[in-house]
Structures are given as structure tokens and as C-alpha cells.
Design a protein that fits this description.
Blueprint (H helix, E strand, L loop, with lengths): L2 E3 L2 E3 L3 E3 L8 H10 L3 E3 L3 E2 H5 L3 H7 L8 E6 L3 H14 L3 E6 L4 H4 L11 H14 L4 E8 L7 H10 L4 E8 L10 H10 L4 E4 L5 H11 L3 E4 L9 H10 L9 H19 L1 H19 L3 H9 L3 H11 L10
Helix pairs in contact: 1-11, 4-6, 6-7, 7-8, 8-9, 9-10, 11-12, 11-14, 13-14
Bound molecules: flavin mononucleotide (FMN).
Amino acid sequence: MAVYLADTSIDPPVLLAPMAGITDRPFRDLVARFGAGLVVSEMVASQEMVEAKASVRARAELGFGQARTAVQLAGREAHWMAEAARIAEAQGARIIDINMGCPAKKVTTGLSGSALMRDLDHATGLIEAVVGAVSVPVTLKTRLGWDDALRNAAALACRAEAAGVQMITIHGRTRCQFYKGAADWAAIAEVVEAIGIPVIANGDITGPDTARRALAASGAAGVMVGRGIQGRPWALAEIAAALHGGAEPDIPAGDDLVDLVAGHYQAMLSFYGTALGLRVARKHLGWYMDGAGTPAALRRAILTAPRPETVIALIPDALAAAPERRAA
Ligand SMILES: Cc1cc2nc3c(=O)[nH]c(=O)nc-3n(C[C@H](O)[C@H](O)[C@H](O)COP(=O)(O)O)c2cc1C
């Protein structure tokens, strides 16, 4: 059931996807508290990490004591990637993940992220540099291909495996699809068949039912969940319990939900400081309120409040209508 990368086990094989601006340290800690096989940092730009911009280092902050954290690096140049990997390992990263899936124009025009799928020789050189730089396992996250004419995830995966990558996550879309259409889990099977290392299926998995269907269609060793966990930090634990046995997570309701949301809010304020924390917290609060069906006027009051004390005071009312248990 578990996925093993050298002496690191991912158990259960239910992973939190890296999401820039979302899977920061406070959110990763919260998800890990419910239980997760692995949580992955937001993408960190390798050159900026080496050049030590404070905000970049903060994004990679690992949560020491949090064993199941991977740091995801993005970049185009082997020497920056290798150096950034060394720094992340020295800070305590247990796994280094390489981003070859980001579709954003500002990343692909710098020929990073999913643009690397258009130049497999270059992509391979980059992987070799990272694998050669660290002793922790190196993993790769990518898509099915650049577009329908270039669906080369299996070819990239073969090269990555030969270069020493120990696990590959495939988002079941091409770069040119961005987030449109449905993830094609069956297409991930081609990668599973092409390589011997574990493959993780990603895209549109939100709960036990979609996780089961993604695994059945792809034959993957595990699942990674991104958007489906927004406002539901217990979602990975729910999937793990349904698919791999073990205790059902205690999904908070009533006062427990208020405590969870207020605690997450305070953690964001401490991590980012009040001014930035207020802004960063809004998207998470919005997702919690989506789940609770918060009335529009109250929602607006919370999302525009200039002072944290006002937000904290309004959270109980905002969550008052939350259902006992939310379906995925
Ligand atoms: C806001 C946002 C930010 C993302 N940031 C990253 C990132 O930093 N690195 C990465 O590899 N993928 C990133 N992704 C892609 C997700 O990891 C994931 O592959 C994608 O959302 C599909 O999975 P899902 O349907 O479970 O969300 C991001 C996605 C979203 C929505």
C-alpha cells in the first residue's frame, strides 16, 4: 500500500499537491495534522532561492519536525536547480520535487515548468543535476504533455527514471489545456506501464469516489489532491481512510470547526505578519465560507474587515450554518 522511495515511505499514498499561494506552511501543517502521506511546498524558484530573497526562502520553509514534506523547485538552469536543491536538503527537505507541469505563461516563457516537456534533452540534464546534488529522493511532477500533438509524459518519465528520479506525479491534462476539461486519468496508465517507479495520479480528485476511479483508470500507486482540499483540510485523511483503512478523520463541526478556522487564521497572521496575513487569509476564509453557506453580507464583512479582531469575532456566525458533514 505504501510507496517507498529509498528509505522514505509515503504512507498512505495520498498526497497534498503543491499550490502556489495556497500550500504554505500554515496550510501544510493543518493538512498534516489530519494525516497525509506527503505534503509538498509551493513551487520555489530555484535561482531566487539561491539568491536568498527572504520571501522565497519563507515559501520553502519546511516545518522542521514535519517529516513528510517535499520542497518543489522550478527553474530552467541546472546549476541553479542543483544549488537550490542542496539548500533545501540542508534545511531539512526529505524529498526534492521538480516542477515540469506549471502552465503559467510567466513560468513557461522562462522555459521552466511544463515548457520543459518541449525539450526533453534539457529536461533530462536538469533532472540529472538535481539528482547528483542531493542524497534525498528526487521526484518529478508533470502533465500528459505540452498539447495534444505532444503527449510525451511517458518518454519524459522513462528518461527521468533512468536519471534517478524515484516517483512521478502526472496531472492528467496537457499544458495547453491549463485547467479546462476533465483530467484524463486513463491516459496516465501509459506512464504507469512505461516505468518501474511509482506514479501518482493527479487532477480532479476531490474525495474517496474520484480517488478510487482515478486509481482504477490509471493503475497509479497513489493520488495527489489540489483544489479539492481548499476549505476541507481533512480531505486527504478522508480519502486515506476510505481507500487504505484506518480511522475516519474527525471532521470538525460546530465549535470545533470554529476553532479550526480561527486557529488556521491566527497561524497565517503569525507566519506572514498582520498586513500580508490579512490578505493571504482571505482565500482560505472564502473557501471555508463556501462550505458553510455563509450569507453574502456576512461574507463581505469578513473579507473586507481591516482588523483581525473583527474577523475572529465574526467567524462563529459565518460558520453557523455549516453542515455536520460535507460531501466531496
Ligand atoms: C492556485 C494553484 C496553484 C498551483 N501551483 C502549483 C505549483 O506551485 N506547483 C505545481 O507543480 N503545481 C501547481 N498547481 C497544480 C496543482 O498541483 C495540480 O496539479 C492541479 O491543480 C490539478 O489537481 P487538482 O484538480 O487536484 O487541483 C497549482 C494549481 C492551482 C489551482
